[in-house]
Protein: Dehydrogenase/reductase SDR family member 12-like
Organism: Haplochromis burtoni
Amino acid sequence: MHFVWDCSSFEIMSLYRNAIWFLNGIQQYTRKGYEVASKEFDPRDLDVSVVGRSFMITGANSGIGKATAVAIAKKGGTVHMVCRNKDKAEEAKEDIVTKSGNTEVYIHTVDMSQSRKVWEFAEAFKKQYPSLNGLINNAGCMVHKRELNTEGLEKNFATNTMGVYILTQTLIPLLQKSRDPRVITVSSGGMLVQKLEVDDLQSAKGYFDAVMVYAQNKRQQVVLTEQWAKANPVIHFSVMHPGWVDTPAVSTSMPQFHRMMEDRLRTVEQGADTVVWLALSRVASRTRSGQFFQDRKPVPTHLPLAWTHSSAEEIQSFMTQLENLSKDFQLQADADPAGPCRPQFV
């Protein structure tokens, strides 16, 4: 009887944790949650000009990424759009330029799921541009079946974690020599129901639940941000939850959730607000580096009484695995007789 209680108690705690997260989401992550939180925003925080400063945004052709690009371009910043689809990027660029009146918008065609390509792009970018003031890791995906990319990596992990790791790690030297450097990663509140799984980073074990895999990747991003902040004090790192936002990605990857919550979802501008605030405001730069933000405020990275905390050994194992994977791709590029491929800069 005692054994039965041990098994079911874990399931009950999991259900309880998920229920608490969802109820919290209904209150805070929706459009209404944003409207309540925004009453405390100081509009003067974004009364800034960033003319002469440059910002790289992954996944900038739609959703939160595009809304962020428009907001930064309106403030005079140079925008580097990192997008997988060149045609969609061109269309988005035209709209960004029209809305902002800023022509300093550039397209870089890169598939964030291809680790070697990401590294080659970042290396080339460092050589071509003298500075980078802000890196916004926004691109993400939710592939519902376990699929591997051409490099043998699970696609969600390759895009949401490995791509973010390689791009950021490679650009750190450029960021360090730039004025007021910042790195913002768009995560998700879904990570609150996940503990870092260092023994299964690519979700090879057990049942493949894409929503939970995505949440695991988002937990990985939070851990990465905390570790980068410790290792690189010159750069301000932050990770954030945009809330539940009405984006093309959400309607495609989570159609049932989108239909159920459609009237309550935030606009892309509301979802992008904290990203823009973290990237541009002086107030944000004075906050402690490495924190998790929601609606312009740092919030806990674990639910109350949660079992999602990781040990120092687990975190070190996670970082070492990413470092080793990254080195493997760099060695492959160096050994390729054709040499590294040159990314497309438009």
Remarks:
- DSSP finds twelve helices and nine strands in the chain.
- Residues 85 and 106 are 14 Å apart (CA to CA).
- Residues 1-13, 342-346 have pLDDT under 50 and may be disordered.
- The first helix runs from residue 2 to 28.
